[in-house]
Amino acid sequence: MVLCGDEYKEGEILVTEDGTQTGELSRNESFRNMFVDVKHRLEVAGEKNCDRYNLRRRHVEFLPNQLVWRKNYVLSDAAKYFSQKLAPKYIGPLLVHKRVSPWTYELRDSIGNSKGVWHIKDLKAAEDMTLEPTATD
């Protein structure tokens, strides 16, 4: 029975005549094994976090001349008797003029006036919409 640290014997590393070690692993080998284990655990944790992070992400790309709705950002104003809660959530439909970056698009209205550059999170595809007026009888 071990009562204190002095009585605990560390494993000895035995070296044979040809220079190979037996018994415990050398310090370098144990660090290599530890490094491989930590690297594997980090990869597994990264994949797990990636799945959680991308769970509700949507992959959307818009083409030039495609119709989209733009999210409306307004503030309430008591002096003008305006409530943000009652304002429309989206404005549009607007026309995608060009793709500025993978996440931003330049928008134009039906006349061709620029409506700014907007992030993809603020855009929603306009389904079954055309800018051309339809004849009603």
List keywords for this structure.
two-stranded antiparallel ribbon, 7 strands, 2 domains, SH3 type barrels, alpha+beta, disordered C terminus
Structure described in brief:
This protein has 137 residues and is an alpha+beta fold. The protein is 20% helix and 26% strand. A hairpin with a 5-residue loop joins β5 and β6.
Describe this structure in words.
The protein is of the alpha+beta class and 137 residues long. It folds into 2 domains: 14-53; 67-125, Roll (SH3 type barrels). Helix content is 20%, strand content 26%. The protein contains 1 helix and 7 strands; from the N terminus they run E-E-H-E-E-E-E-E. The protein has a 5-stranded antiparallel sheet with strand order 6-5-4-3-7, with no helix packed on it. It has a two-stranded antiparallel ribbon with strand order 1-2. The longest helix has 27 residues, at 27-53. The N and C termini lie far apart (101 Å). Residues 133-137 have low confidence and may be disordered.
N- to C-terminal distance: 101 Å
User: Tally of extended strands?
Assistant: 7
Q: How many strands, what sense, and barrel or not for the largest sheet?
A: 5 strands, antiparallel
**Overall mean confidence score, pLDDT:** 80
> Helical segment tally?
1
Radius of gyration: 32 Å
Please describe the topology of this protein.
Elements: E1 13-15, E2 21-23, H1 27-53, E3 67-71, E4 90-99, E5 104-108, E6 114-119, E7 123-125
Antiparallel strand pairs: 1-2, 3-4, 3-7, 4-5, 5-6
